[in-house]
Each structure stands twice: as C-alpha cells, then as structure tokens.
Amino acid sequence: MASQVTIVRGRAVPLRGAAIDTDRIIPARYLRTVTFAELGAHVFEDDRASGGHPFDDPRYRGASVLVVNANFGCGSSREHAPQALMRWGIRAFVGESFAEIFFGNCVANGLPCVTADAARIDELQAAIESEPQLQLTIDLRQMTVAYGQRCIQVSMPSGAREQLVSGGWDSLGQLLEAGPQVAATAARLPYMRQFAAV
Amino acid sequence: MGKTLFEKVWEAHTVRRLPGGQVQLFIGLHLVHEVTSPQAFQMLRDRGLGVRFPERTFATVDHIVPTDGTRRPYPDSLAEQMAAAIERNARDFGVTLFTADDPRQGIVHVTGPELGLTQPGMTIACGDSHTATHGALGAVAFGIGTSQVRDVLATQCLAMAPLKVRRIVVDGALRPGVYAKDVILHVIERLGVNGGVGFAYEYGGAAIAAMSLEERMTVCNMSIEGGARVGYVNPDAATYAYLRGRPYAPQGAAFERAVTWWTSMASDADAAYDDTVRFAAETIPPTVTWGINPAQSVGVDGRIPSVESFPAAQQAGVREALEYMGLTPGAPVAGVRIDVAFIGSCTNGRLADLREAARVVRGRRVAPGVRALVVPGSQQVRAAAEAEGLHEIFREAGFEWRHPGCSMCLAMNPDRLTGRQVCASSSNRNFKGRQGSPTGRTLLMSPAMVAAAAVTGAVTDVRSMLG
C-alpha cells in the first residue's frame, strides 16, 4: 500500500497556455535513458531556452503546485513528463483540463490533478502572479483549493481520487491481489487458446 | 439494445471491479519498446516479480535505432545502452524480442498488424500513445505510461475506468488525391485536440468501409491527437482477408472459428453511442497543418488563418503558433517553402503509403536544397517496397532510402531537423521541437502530399500532380 494523498500544501507556479504537450515538458532527446533519475534538470528545457519561463523565475523557486490551462500534458504517453516535473519539485497540478494518459501517469505516481473552469484558473494564476508567496492547500477529501481568503471547488474523477485518498494509487499491489481470477478470465477468451475447437 | 465493440471487449476482458468505478482489465497482447520499458522492468526486479504472460508479450526496438544502416554497437552511447537494456530484459524475463537485424523488426504499430499479432476483439496495450493504431483491426488498444507497462508485465492487467464511445461516421467517397491522413486531420480540426478525452472513437461509414486496413491504421493512429486514447474500426471481410495467412494469425480451421468470434465482437446494428458525429467524405480536401498542434490545419487550397478568425479563448494559442511557425495570416498555405521532406512513421510508413508517394515522385526530382528521406515502417515494408522497385524510384529522384524506425517523427535517433528548418512530414505531431530541433517546424500532411512538396520545394496540391 502506498501512502495516502489527501492534502497537498505549498506555493505554486502558474504556467499559462493551452495544450502544452509532453514533448515540451521533456524533449524526446532526454528519453534516451534507462532511468528517470536525471530528468528534473531538463524539464521544459527548450521552452526555457528562450528566457522568461516561470520555472526560471526566482519568485516561484520552491513551488510544489503547478497551475495550468486546458489539455495540459497532451501528446506522447511518456511517463518521463510527470517524472521530470516531480523531480523538479511539483507535487500536484491544478488546471482547466488534463490529457488522459498524462493524468493516469500522474496518479500512478501519487500526483493529484484537479480541475476547475477557465475563469477560476485564470483568477488563481493571476493571484499567484501578484503574490508569488501565496500558499495553496489542495484538499482531496473536500475537493477544494484554498488560497488567501479564497476557497474554490475543484473536480477529479472519483476512481482516481479514491486511489489517492485511500493510498491505493500504486495500482500494482491491487492488481496482484486478483490472482486466480486473471487465469479464469484468460481461459474464457478464445484467442488465448488459439481458437482451438471446444 | 445492442452493444458496441468497445463494450463487448470491455466485458469479455473484465477480471473484477475495483473500488471507485475502475475495473481490472485483462490485456490480451502487450507490445513493448525500448523507450518506455526499461524503468518498468527495473520495477519488476525491485519487487522480485516476473512477467505473468511472457507468451503474450512482444518487444521491438524502433525509437532509437539509426536508419542509415549503422550497426551495433551504436555510436550514441545512450542509444546503445537502451538497446542493450531491452535485450537483457527480454532475455531475463523470457520475452520475444525483434532486434534491429530481425526481418520481423519495425515500428511497433507497423509490425503488430503485419505479423498477425493484432487481432479483432483483443485488448492491446503498449507504452506508446499511438497504440490506438491496432484498433484498425477491431482491437481495443490503449497507450499507457511506464507504471502501467509495469502493471501489465507483472499481472497482464490494467486498472482502468470505462470510456464513452463516440461514433465518427464518414459518409460517401473520398475524392482522388485525398487520403486517410486527410480524413483524420480533418476530424481533429473539427473536434479539437481534446474533444476525444474520455472517449473511444469508433470510425465507420462508407468512406471508412472502403479503406484498406493500412488506411484504417492511419486513421486510428491519430486518435490520440484528438484526445481519444482508443480508436477502432469494426472488423469486416477486409479485416479477415488482411489477417489470413499472417504468421501469428490462427491457421486452418481455427481461422474460421476465429472469424465467427471476431464477427460476434463487432458493434451491433442497434448499439447505443454516447455521441455521433458525421462527416461527408466529398468535402474533405488534402489537408496541411499550419500550427503547433494537429488540429491547426487547413485545406491545401486554403489560407493561413488570422488570429481574429478564432474565438477569443483560442487567440493566444493561435498567435503563439503563427509566431513559432513564421507564417503570414491570409497567405495561401500552398507555396510555403520546405527544407526537409520526411515519409515514414507509425502513421504513414506502410507499403500503400510508399506506393502513393512513389506515384508522385516517379520521373521527377527532389527540388534543389531539399533533403528528402523515406523511412519504411518495418523490415517487411522495406523488403516489399524493394521487390516492387519503389526504392529505385525514390533514389533516382534524390530521396534517401532508409532502414526502418521511428526516425524523424520524434528524432530520438540521428535523423533530425536543424535550426528553423521546415519539414513536410507524413508523421503525427507538429509540436514545437518535435522533430529534433528546438526551433524546427513541422507541416503534417499525407505521404503523397509530402512527395509533392519534396519535388516542388513547397506545399503543393498533390491533385495537380496525379495523372
């Protein structure tokens, strides 16, 4: 059983823009590795090369929550993307929406991704930009994000939320429990016996 | 009320229900490649676990392999380390591996179908977002991350929440010079890059039914570019004809029993869908992307759009795309100059793709200053193309004729753009920096359109070049 993830507290970094893809989060040349260990140093490397990126803004140093817009993490299935962000220091995401595989990869690493509508996210990003020391509290039991005097409702699919809150986000332990039921399911599938006559 | 193929496959593969609405889903075929698997095998070692169904697990090398004939050990020490790792993992865990010198090797989404590993009614998983390709044969195929690769290796199962099903109907017949690539680019342009999140896309209608299996693979391949993790076409007579005789397909009387089961898994005529969207094939033009995501496209006879022509919420993204691409709003997309032409990838690196490109190239020359390369999707595609003499057509025109691999689709091997080069590409992603240069630019289009751009040096309507 992995640890329970119910509350994430910390300062945040706002990253504006829709459809920020996983090639931008971690360029493919850094996928030439057999571990995830070195990825944190290269997160958003090409975007950061042109200067002015929030990840290089000293005001956001030490932030652990990333606040993004729509369809964050689209594109490739590379788990290197959440791994790179995690190794940079990110522990949770708040955004308008997340790409499906990226979302699943985050949950598999115990990283919550919660959503709110575009207006709420814009307000939150603006609040952080004007007060970078702002503390955020993401509460997965109440499904809220609190900051300053504000507290907004956020969403997350119930299955993934349950996995984080219960500490069941390390899916392997759960899947291993099924034991003989897996063999029974396999035995019912005709292709598993090469369509042999019954 | 009938059921969709997705529902039937989901039910047949459900091991048990999990808390929170997920199910434990049995995976019938696990395809593995060198980029997303080494950490997963290490996780098995750390936990003292083996591969649960090694006979249902097939590995290949595709992303990092040089395509210029360079042999092991690779000069790139990181690529060599990855090739060595998958060899060791396959050996240690008893998994079949198609190495770079194996006649069965190729891009994982090209070889699965061509070997007959991919079959209707199966669940398939691979640590690669383009796994939906296998849906062209009526499989339910998921792209997964590395933790899930670990899960499938260790248990042959995934913890998954069910998807909704959107039926995408393409009525009528495509016009000459319009290809499967144009269909899927058009669908993504209309439904958006995140329109498919939470959905499986079921493609149907007369235009899809008329497509070859290779064309259906092109359509299903790019489902993820529209946000849909799963895309499929119901199996039919064309599917069975494609599979008959392939090495891993059922043989003899078993094949006939398989056809009966496969047919039973297709969506029922009265199946209910969560959503249906219709397109008219006649209205789909040869399509070219102008931006930095695959929904930012226009017909080849169209113009680069203006920022103001988009809703307010999209304008910042459009402005960013136009600035990155250096394109002028209002200018025709035809005539945009290119530096590189790339024909290949899991989207469009199959024999039919090379044939269509060769039809355009035959008797012509690559434009001065353009670098053009053809990278077949697999060893089998390369051999079949050479048997038809396609390699000579390409070489005579000035194309490089390469060995199979993912190559310049994502530039994990030495094939990459430099500086701000513009590439006409038959691949699937036009993201910033995707083709290996942080400032490189990609125009997605069909292989025939890439061929046309290669010989003219600019985006060109291929319909003007087909006899």
How would you sum up this structure, described in words?
- The complex is a heterodimer of chains A (198) and B (467).
- Chain A is of the alpha/beta class and 198 residues long.
- Chain A has one domain: Alpha-Beta Barrel (Aconitase, domain 4), CATH 3.20.19.10.
- Chain A contains 8 helices and 7 strands; from the N terminus they run E-H-H-E-H-E-H-E-H-E-E-E-H-H-H.
- Chain A has helices at residues 22-25, 45-49, 80-88, 100-108, 118-130, 158-166, 171-176, 180-188; strands at residues 7-14, 65-68, 92-95, 113-115, 135-139, 144-147, 150-153.
- In chain A, a hairpin with a 2-residue loop joins strand 6 and strand 7.
- The termini of chain A are far apart.
- The mean pLDDT of chain A is 96.
- With 467 residues, chain B is an alpha/beta fold.
- Chain B folds into 3 domains: 5-160, Aconitase, domain 3, CATH 3.30.499; 164-283, 3-Layer(aba) Sandwich (Aconitase, Domain 2), CATH 3.40.1060; 287-464, Aconitase, domain 3.
- Chain B has 16 helices and 19 strands.
- A 5-stranded parallel β-sheet of chain B has the order 5-4-3-6-7. Chain B has a 5-stranded parallel β-sheet with strand order 17-16-15-18-19, covered by helices on one side.
- In chain B, a hairpin with a 5-residue loop joins strand 1 (14-17) and strand 2 (23-26).
- Classes of the chains: A alpha/beta (198), B alpha/beta (467).
- At the A-B interface, helix 2, helix 4, helix 6, helix 7 and helix 8 of A face strand 1, helix 2, helix 3, helix 5 and strand 8 of B.
